[in-house]
Amino acid sequence: MLTTVKENKKTYREKNTDYDGLWKNLIEELFQEFMEYFAQDLYPEIDFEKGADFLNLELFQFVIDSRKGKNYTDKLVKVLLKNGEEKYVLIHIEVQTIGKQDFAERMFKYFYRIYDKYNHLIYSIALLTDASHQHHEDRFHYSFYGTELTYAYNTYRFYGEDEGELKKSGNPFALAVLAGIYISKNTGRTDKDNGKKFQFKQKLISLAFEKYSHREAYLAALLYFIDYTLQIPPEFQEKLYESLPIAQNEKEEGKIMGMEKLRDTPTFGRLFREIEEEATRRGMEKGMARGVAEGIEKGIEQGIEQGMKEAERNFVKKLLDRDYTDEEISELTSLELEEIIILRKSFEN
Asked: How far apart (Å, rounded) are the C-alpha atoms in residues 254 and 318?
């Protein structure tokens, strides 16, 4: 699974987008939906209740060697069929590369080495994300004086896909394909196209909310993928944030706060922080009100102070439960580091 890191506004836009890692993450999180969308012939035969075992392809030296200087991702997944048989699914995603003969040969090499190691039937599928090119190899042919071999494999080409139909699909990977098509067609464009990129990202996020607001796993996985795949400059990022309906809808706060995966994303990370800051304010007000009530008997000033301390203590506990660092909690609460360290120890005891 892809490991998230705290957002760094100074550096995250300077790095190349890790399409490879984003696709890996999405496939692992939503493997059943991936197979339903891209492998409709095999999908009904798999017993998904038995789970799926993602094998470490990095163990194969030939994969490491063949990947040097390339931009693609591979997944090898062991699944069980409903009849009890064990099979393997080889998923290859070619990012921004035309599937020429060397690609077909590489697919064949993957196949025969994995087959040689496991001696099981293998379902191979290649996702060819270059939506600007129609022609991709879908088979490897070898011939030498009467010795012939043809290896054919499944392919899904982003080229020519109907964007209207993708928007109608009930499978979350349709939106991932939409994002991939846009990226492929707009790679290398100048900053003048950032406005179009912003509009597309805005529409894609809105579509994700519209289609999957009732499916938290789908929504979280898609928003993470879209937010990092389609990164935009700060001025457009601000516009995007302000346009999010969820940012103004209190009913949706609980839903977004339940999707911890989004905590460090460029767009939704900020939303997390603002919701938590607002919760701090409300907690302080509630604590003060309780303190005033108690102050009738114990003294107004003492009651207010006690209420504020109680609210701060409860909020610090929530932040500690979410693995915030002492420094981050200090920034959110205005408490001194020494006070937070004392509170942390008291909760541990």
From this structure: 14
Residue 318, burial from CB neighbour count under 10 angstroms (0-12, 13-18, 19+): middle
Which long-range contacts link 195-204 to residues 24+ away (Cβ below 8 Å)?
A: 195/236, 197/230, 197/232, 197/236, 198/232, 198/236, 198/239, 198/240, 200/230, 201/226, 201/230, 201/232, 201/240, 202/240, 202/243, 204/175, 204/178, 204/179, 204/230
CA 173, chain centre distance (Å): 12
- Residue-wise pLDDT tens digits, 12-66: 343 567 887 888 889 999 999 999 999 999 999 999 999 898 887 655 555 555 5
Has residue 227 got a pLDDT over 70? yes
What is the three-class DSSP state of 259?
coil
Residue 312: pLDDT over 80:
no
Find the radius of gyration of the CA atoms of the chain. Answer: 25
Q: Write down the pTM of the prediction.
A: 0.71
Contact 91, 125 (CB under 8 A): yes
**Residue located via tokens 């017993």:** 47
Q: At what angle do helices 173-186 and 194-212 cross, to 10 degrees?
A: 180
